[in-house]
Predict the 3D structure of the following.
Amino acid sequence: MRSPIKHVLVIGAGGHAKVVLSALMEAKADVAGIYDDDPFKLGTEVLGVPVLGAIGELRSVKGVVGVIGVGDNATRRRIAAQLPGTEWLTVVHPMAFVDESASLGLGTVVFAGAVIQPGARIGRHCIINTGATVDHDCVIGDFCHIAPGCNLGGAVTLAEGVFMGIGSVAIQNVSVGAWSTVGAGAAVVTYLPDRVVAVGVPARVRRMLEI
Ligand SMILES: CC(C)(COP(=O)(O)OP(=O)(O)OC[C@H]1O[C@@H](n2cnc3c(N)ncnc32)[C@H](O)[C@@H]1OP(=O)(O)O)[C@@H](O)C(=O)NCCC(=O)NCCS
């Protein structure tokens, strides 16, 4: 945990939230509850933490300290905009390595086995998922998701909202445009524009996205 460990609220009660909760617990955070808009989840528990209410209810709560436990990048952006007064926590699982010269934005989560190398700059509300590696001097925009086992070479640039699929790679110095998706197992070897889905080795644009 880069921020002081306080009474933390997790937003989202799905599978990704479960991993966020695990990272918080391993970091000895005091997790007070979960908020989710699915009425069927109210009163249930995730890893023993109760679902207390809908996300909108947090707007009237003062002094919320939270982390967004939702894997979808556009949804994290929407929730962050919905709750402007929230103090967002940056969460690093104790079994991740983050070089001290790397920077992590507020609300970003780094899971077990991830490695973030010197000079990397990671934006707000990003997910550096299980076993992903972000090498030296990468620049990762806000709301990106680097899925499990993804490897980014040195000085890769990802614009806002990029999703790098599970097991994908990007060679050194390449960049990916805003809100693009790189498919599972793809290899990015040259520039990819904004709002595309690219798959394969080497990664080729398959279709455009309307985000
Ligand atoms: C790339 C991706 C986003 C495409 O999803 P989609 O738009 O719904 O695409 P579809 O599943 O309809 O597949 C369309 C075509 O692309 C192919 N395709 C899909 N994903 C592919 C991939 N990763 N690599 C190569 N080809 C892929 C399909 O085989 C299909 O080919 P066809 O038209 O010849 O039959 C998705 O398949 C993917 O890889 N997601 C990553 C998931 C992930 O990493 N999850 C981790 C969460 S932590």
About this structure: The longest helix spans residues 15-26. DSSP finds two helices and 25 strands in the chain. Residues 15 and 70 are 8 Å apart (CA to CA).
